[in-house]
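re: ur question from earlier - yeah i can do the single chain one, its not a big deal. heres the input i used so u can compare w yours
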Amino acid sequence: MDNKVYLPFYMTYPVRYPYRQENKAARDIEYLREMYPQEAKRLLSKIAEVLDRMDYEESMIYDEYPDRWQLYRLAESIVKILQNEAEEKGEEHSKEKWEWISDMVQVLLFDEIFNRRHGDTKGRRRSQIFVEQDSWKSPYGDKGIF
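and the output i got, formated as tokens:
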């Protein structure tokens, strides 16, 4: 018997799945976000929830040059939401900790807006990726990307 595996001609081309090459940057950033510290994942999850509500066609996050003041106000409102949640849970943070959280929210917010503007999400919302705060779940399931 012949144990050789014969492939169809189209499977012998160098780039078998060109759509996977387009999504390489999105997969890369998802992998790197998997390694974020838990606090950063929690903040990113809250930022994604807020941006999901603002994610429509004529939103200010898709302006060619978003207004700096509006972006800072958006970051401040997210920090206020986080402060209210911390008060409800009975957590107390120092002033320095809130300054750090505020800076981190700004960085993550601007990064998330950049990724949404340049098609990183490809039709799925960021909050669907960060389903749980303790563990990251891949949008591709347990079988991986391929």
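Helices lie at 18-22, 24-34, 38-54, 68-89, 95-117, 126-129. not sure if urs matches, ping me
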